[in-house]
């Protein structure tokens, strides 16, 4: 990055811009949280992912040839199909919904709680890095 005043490269600005890339990719964790949420939902309620999407009102359910489908939710269950700009809030809301409605203390619940906390912490770190890099850029 060039400092506009002096025309020289500013190392500090370059370091701030690359800071978000140091934080590990959130995508695998999103998939893990969604899979665990679905597993815990099914374990506690004996109900399907269609019913999770309908009951939670977080995910849309589409009718394809009179068969209900959760196309958007399904994208978050596989690392290869997760969107480039994932809706992290929807995954977090789904996990919270499932944890609230599931009353069994199982290994899946404990793992889901741990991974959900990791996801929230990772999002906070990314937010702070982006905020700091934006602030640094506006100062230069």
> What's the tally of helices?
6
Q: Tell me roughly what share of residues is in helical segments.
A: 55-70%
Cα radius of gyration in angstroms: 20 Å
Strand order of the largest sheet: 1-2
Q: What fraction of residues sit in β-strands?
A: under 5%
Q: Major beta sheet, specifics?
A: 2 strands, antiparallel
**Which regions have little confidence, pLDDT < 50, spanning 5+ residues?**
1-22
Helices and strands, in order, run as HHHEEHHH
Structural class: mainly alpha
Mean pLDDT figure: 83
Domain count, please report it. Answer: 1
3D shape? globular
Roughly how many Å apart are the termini?
Answer: 10 Å
Assembly form of the protein = single chain
Please describe what this structure looks like.
Helix content is 65%, strand content 4%. It has a two-stranded antiparallel ribbon. A hairpin with a 2-residue loop joins β1 and β2. The protein is built from 6 helices and 2 strands, in the order αααββααα. The chain is mostly helical and 140 residues long. It starts with 10 loop residues before the first helix and ends with a helix. The chain has one domain (21-122). It has helices at 11-22, 27-45, 49-56, 71-75, 88-101, 107-139; strands spanning 62-64, 67-69. The model is unreliable at 1-22 (pLDDT under 50).
């Amino acid at each position: 990055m060039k400092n506009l005043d002096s025309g020289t490269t500013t190392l500090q600005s370059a370091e701030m811009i690359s800071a978000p890339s140091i934080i590990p990719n959130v995508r695998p964790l999103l998939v893990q949280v969604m899979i665990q949420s679905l597993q815990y939902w099914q374990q506690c309620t004996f109900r399907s992912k269609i019913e999770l999407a309908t009951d939670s009102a977080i995910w849309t359910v589409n009718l394809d040839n009179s068969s209900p489908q959760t196309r958007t939710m399904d994208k978050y269950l596989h690392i290869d199909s997760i969107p480039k700009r994932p809706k992290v809030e929807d995954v977090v809301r789904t996990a919270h919904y499932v944890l609230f409605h599931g009353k069994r203390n199982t290994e899946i619940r404990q793992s889901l709680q741990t991974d959900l906390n990791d996801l929230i912490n990772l999002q906070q770190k990314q937010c702070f890095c982006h905020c700091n890099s934006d602030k640094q850029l506006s100062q230069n």
